[in-house]
TrEMBL record:
Coiled-coil positions: none
InterPro entries: Beta-lactam-related (IPR001466), Beta-lactam/transpept-like (IPR012338), Diverse_Enzym_Activities (IPR050789)
Signal peptide coordinates: 1-25
Stated name of the protein: Beta-lactamase
Entry keyword set: Plasmid, Signal
Organism superkingdom: Bacteria
Organism expressing this protein natively: Cupriavidus taiwanensis (strain DSM 17343 / BCRC 17206 / CCUG 44338 / CIP 107171 / LMG 19424 / R1) (Ralstonia taiwanensis (strain LMG 19424))
């Protein structure tokens, strides 16, 4: 089952919740590791290492599935899905998959590209007008005093759909560094601190300066969240509806969604 927490329900890039309920029902029976050219000892070491992470309380639990050439070589669950009540982790426990939602969003985007509804080189502002006048935050340091200031400069070119797909939009998260722009992101509390729609999230991002000039650097950030909003504008539906119609239903992912059933 795939479930999204509140923020992920509203902002696709951060998190789906998933269990392997459907997958388990369709998986072939496990085979000996040697049958698929793998080492049973090395696979066992994977489980031992994950168990050590549980015992050191780095993670409460985990499910590990390794498939090669369509055959299951390793499938184990360790730890607990609910440490408070001691519920053991099972192979079909519900889990958030967080940024693995990004490839799902990207797949849908490429479906729209194939259908001619979306162009990779299209400027983001064609779909979201708030991004028409984006600025880039450039830190300046006074050589005499050492004081730093943040200067806003215009973009050399617009953000494109392609930039959103490859994280070269200049949009950041604000959690992996301490630049002046990242501090502005943190102050705006865009991350997991709010319950707002994709449209509201995109507007909040558009109100902040970019970390880099579009197309010049890879920066892990809210690019896929904004892309999710683009999909909503193009399709005229919520992202959850789009995902169900285009991915989850056709692929038989009936236990997948952005909220608990």
């Amino acid at each position: 089952m795939l479930i999204l927490p509140t923020f992920a329900r509203l902002s696709v890039a951060l998190s789906l919740l998933a269990s392997t309920t459907v997958a388990c029902a369709r998986l072939p029976a496990p085979v000996a590791a040697a049958e698929v050219g793998m080492s049973a000892g090395r696979l066992g070491a994977v489980g031992d290492w994950m168990q050590s992470q549980v015992e050191s309380k780095r993670v409460p639990g985990a499910v590990m599935l390794i498939v090669r050439n369509g055959q299951v070589a390793y499938f184990e669950a360790v730890g607990q899905q609910d440490p408070v009540h001691g519920t053991p982790m099972s192979k079909d426990s519900i889990s958030r998959i967080y940024s693995m939602t990004k490839p799902m969003t990207s797949v849908v985007a490429m479906m729209l590209v194939e259908e001619g509804k979306l162009q990779l080189d299209a400027p983001l502002s064609r779909f979201l007008l708030a991004f028409a006048t984006m600025k880039v935050g450039v830190e300046r340091k006074d050589p005499a005093t050492g004081a730093k200031t943040l200067e806003s400069v215009g973009t050399l070119r617009p953000i494109t759909v392609h930039d959103l797909l490859r994280h070269t939009s200049g949009i950041t998260y604000g959690v992996f560094g301490d630049s002046a722009v990242e501090r502005l992101y943190r102050a705006a509390q865009i991350g997991l601190h709010g319950d707002f729609t994709n449209a509201e999230l995109a507007d909040r991002v558009a109100a902040l300066p970019l970390q880099n000039q579009p197309g010049t650097a890879w920066e892990y950030g809210f690019s896929t969240d904004v892309l999710g909003r683009v999909l909503e504008v193009v399709e005229g539906q919520t992202l959850g509806t789009i995902m169900r119609r285009r991915l989850f239903a056709p692929l038989g992912m009936k236990d997948t969604g952005f909220g608990l059933p």
